Amino acid sequence: SEVKKQEACQCITGTNLSIKNLFYNVPVRRRFLKSNTVEMRHIMDEFQRIAIANPDIFFSLHHNNTEVFHLPAGNLRQRLVGIWGTNVNKKLVPLSEETDVIKIYGFIGKPQFSKRTRGEQLFFVNHRFIKSGYLNHAVMAAYEDLLQKDTYPLYAIFIEMDPDRIDINVHPTKQEIKFDDERLVYNYLKVAIRHALGQNSIT
Question: What is the pLDDT of residues 105-116, one digit of tens each?
């Protein structure tokens, strides 16, 4: 418990996160953890969200001395392919719309590749992952009759706008936010997706 020396030193580029003996001193909290498989799934979900939000940064994830993900720095399409698999490349439709108020970009999935399960639906606002049933409704409305019943398209959609028009203090995890004008964002998103589908001869 004594600092012997403190000085600047040369380190390799990057950041390593190592978490050990989590909740060692809080056994009650530890008892609420699920199985190793479930907890690893949570870690992978969070890892993927951060990696997708920052495609220009190299990421790797190791589990039990096995490399699960090796994601070189690149563009957003390359990052999605690295995480969701090479087959996803043919399913992606680029999305791009920009106004004075909002910028929307990313990728949406072709309707014929929609799935009956959720999981590959991601929203990022100012590069922060969020959950929004309201915005998801806008996506589904944009596809209209293109989807089979009870199926969901994949998407990784980025929204950028003035932070002053967003309230992020809605939920402790910051995964839910409130827009000053939710209807405006809803309509812009819906139109942007319809444009993307139209430009790629899908509608």
Answer: 999 999 888 888
